[in-house]
Amino acid sequence: MALLETRGLSVRFGGHLAVSSVDLDVESGVVTGLIGPNGAGKTTTFNLICGVLGATGGRVIFDGRPIGSLSTHYRARLGIGRTFQRLEVFGSMTVRENVLVGAEIRQAWARFSHVSPQLLADGEELPLGEEVELLVERLGLAAVADVRVGELPTGQARLVEIARALAIRPRVLLLDEPASGLDDTETGHLGELMQQLAASGLAILLVEHDVPLVMKVCAQVNVLDFGQVIARGTPSEIQANEVVQAAYLGGS
Ligand SMILES: Nc1ncnc2c1ncn2[C@@H]1O[C@H](COP(=O)(O)OP(=O)(O)OP(=O)(O)O)[C@@H](O)[C@H]1O
Ligand SMILES: [Mg+2]
What we know:
Layout (H helix, E strand, L loop, with lengths): L3 E10 L2 E11 L4 E5 L6 H9 L6 E6 L2 E2 L5 H7 L1 E3 L12 H18 L15 H11 L15 H14 L4 E5 L7 H16 L3 E5 L3 H7 E8 L2 E6 L1 H6 L1 H6 L5
Parallel strand pairs: 3-8, 3-9, 6-7, 7-8
Antiparallel strand pairs: 1-2, 1-4, 4-5, 9-10
Helix pairs in contact: 3-4, 3-5, 4-5
The protein binds adenosine-5'-triphosphate (ATP) and magnesium ion.
C-alpha cells in the first residue's frame, strides 16, 4: 500500500471541476511525478492533499488512514510536508533562521507526541543547531547561511524552502515546481538530492514542468489534464504515450 493515496479526489469551483476523480499512489522510497499543462489542477491537488482546500469529493488517505477531516496543521504533523509554487520563505530572516523555524516546529510537536524522524538515521536526535547545519550543508547553502533569504536569487531561495520543509521531517514531501528559477547546475543538484532523499525512505510527489528532470528522477509519473489523470506509468511509458504527447509533451 502506498504511504499517500488519493481516491476519487475532486474539487469544484462554481461550475468548474478543477480536480476530477483523481487517484494517486505516492510510495515511500521513490519520487512520483505529477505533470500536465498549466491549469491542469496540479497545485489544486496539492492543496487538497494538505487540507488548504476542502475536497468536494473523494478521499485522501495517509498511512492507511483517511485524513480528509483533519486540519492542515494536523496533516503536517502526521508527516505531510510541502513547498509552494509561489515560494513561501521568510525573506527578512537568514537561511539558517528559516531552516530553524522548521526544526523548532518539529521539536515542539515531538514534545507532545511521537513524530517519525525520516531524514536522519533511525533514532538519531541531534541538537537543533546541528540539525539545521546538516540541512543547510546538504542543500548546498552553507556559503549563504547568514544571508537574508530575500537577498538570494530565486534558485537558492527555493532550496531554503525545501530545507525548511525537511526540517519538519516529513514522511511525504510535495514539491511544487522546485526547479523553477534554478539554473542547470542547481537543477542537477536538486535531482540528485531528490533521489537521495527518496533512497533514504522519503516519499516525494513532484510537480514540475522541467520534463527531462521528471523523467530522470521519477519512478512513476501521473499526467493531469483538465483535472483528470489521463495517463500514469513509468517515464518511458509516459513519453511514448500518444495521448500525453498530444495533451502536454508535444507542446513543451
Ligand atoms: N481557489 C480557486 N478558485 C477558483 N478557481 C481556482 C482556484 N484555484 C485554482 N483554480 C482553478 O483551477 C484550475 C487548476 O489550477 P491549478 O493552479 O491547480 O493548476 P496547475 O496545474 O497547478 O497549473 P500551473 O502549471 O500553471 O501551476 C485552474 O483553472 C485555476 O484557475
Ligand atoms: Mg501550479
